[in-house]
Every structure is written in structure tokens, then in C-alpha cells.
Specification:
By secondary structure, this protein is an alpha+beta fold. Helices cover 27% and strands 23% of the residues. It has a single domain (38-200), classed as tt1808, chain A (Alpha-Beta Complex). The chain is globular.
């Protein structure tokens, strides 16, 4: 990732600065960061997941949808993250003061699930983003490490492609990990019948 500006900025300054160029940025503790151009497989994983999730949403007639460019911001912070997949509960948007003007969510009731697909910035996905999403109380957070890039303390030894599902229980995240042909267990979507291999798109 490339730092876009040399000085710390506030969230409001970040929103005023944000250019309409198609390049994605996030705010990390007051530092504007340009996001890496994703690889094809990274995008295919997102596409496949969105289809699977929305299939269950339609099947169960749930009030959820997926948005691409919304920010998730912990309150009282100068960070704002744009997840690879953000499941939105629109029924709570009336309580989100930053939604209409800044497309920004701060409450767990608005965000049942976020997903990050790991690239070279894996430390942020396992570190500051996990801490931020936990502080908000987002019920479920997936880290899809399809290349096995995370350090051994996050995905074990030997390192291998891993799907980590963080579930918010008793004010903190519990983590369950899935690999290979293991059937994933999603608290938000128990109806999903996917193996880790299918989500991670591991080639034979």
C-alpha cells in the first residue's frame, strides 16, 4: 500500500479530500492509504462469495444487501475501512449519522458481516481491522487468506490457505479456522454449505 498524504488527517478531512478517480483509499489512524490493485483471483473470490451470500439472503427473505464502497469507522477514531465485502442491514441506517453524507457506518446493527480477502497487506487484516471490527461489535468477520500469506501466529505452521471466521461472543471475537474440505460454519449464515476449499478457490 502507498501512503497518499504525509501528515495525519481527521476523518472529515479524509472525506473532503477523497478524489473521484476510481482509486480506493482507506484511513488508518490518520494516514491516508492507497489500496493495492487486486489480483484476478482476489476479485473472483469476492464475486463467488457475493453470489453465495445473496442466494441465501433471497432464499430466506432476509433484509440484507451487499455494498462495495461504504466505510466502516470505529467511533472516536481516525480510521475508516472499506471491506472487500460488506453486508448491510438497511433497517438501521436511520441511526447512522454519517451514512447520508459520507457513506459511513459506525454501528454493529448496520453491519452483520464483513469480509476481507488477504493481499500483501495481511497484517492490517489480522491486526488493526480485526481490532476495529471487534470494537464496533460487528457480529462476524471473515479473513480469506487464499495464498496463506499471514504469519504463523495467525494461520499456523506450516502456513497454508486458511479461512478465519471471527464471531463476536461476550464482547470479543472467537476465531474458528477452516482449511481444505472442512465445511465452514458461519453463525450469520448457517445455511451456507461451502467448504473452505470452495471459498479459498484452491486448485486441485
Amino acid at each position: 500500500m502507498v501512503q497518499a498524504l504525509p501528515k495525519p488527517v481527521t476523518f472529515d478531512e479524509f472525506c473532503e479530500w477523497y478524489p473521484d478517480t476510481g482509486v480506493r483509499y482507506e484511513l488508518h489512524d490518520g494516514v491516508i492509504v492507497e489500496m493495492n490493485q487486486p489480483l484476478g483471483k482476489h476479485e473472483l473470490i469476492i464475486f463467488t462469495l457475493c453470489r453465495s451470500l445473496m442466494s441465501v439472503v433471497f432464499q430466506l427473505d432476509l433484509p440484507y444487501g451487499i455494498v462495495k464502497n461504504a466505510f466502516v469507522k470505529p467511533q472516536q477514531s481516525n480510521s475508516a475501512y472499506c471491506p472487500d465485502v460488506l453486508l448491510l442491514n438497511p433497517s438501521n441506517l436511520g441511526n447512522e449519522s454519517l451514512w447520508e453524507t459520507k457513506s459511513t457506518l459506525t454501528q454493529a446493527a448496520s453491519v452483520p458481516l464483513v469480509i476481507e480477502v488477504v493481499s500483501s497487506n495481511w497484517g492490517i487484516d489480522y491486526g488493526s481491522k480485526a481490532i476495529a471490527y471487534e470494537s464496533i461489535g460487528i457480529p462476524e468477520y471473515w479473513i480469506i487468506d487464499y495464498l496463506g500469506l499471514g504469519s504463523r501466529r495467525f494461520i499456523g505452521n506450516p502456513k497454508s490457505p486458511t479461512l478465519s471466521i471471527y464471531s463476536f461472543v461476550d464482547d470479543e471475537y472467537d476465531v474458528n479456522q477452516f482449511r481444505g474440505n472442512e465445511l465452514i460454519l458461519s453463525p450469520t449464515f448457517p445455511e451456507l454449505h461451502l467448504t473452505a476449499k470452495e471459498v479459498l478457490m484452491i486448485d486441485e
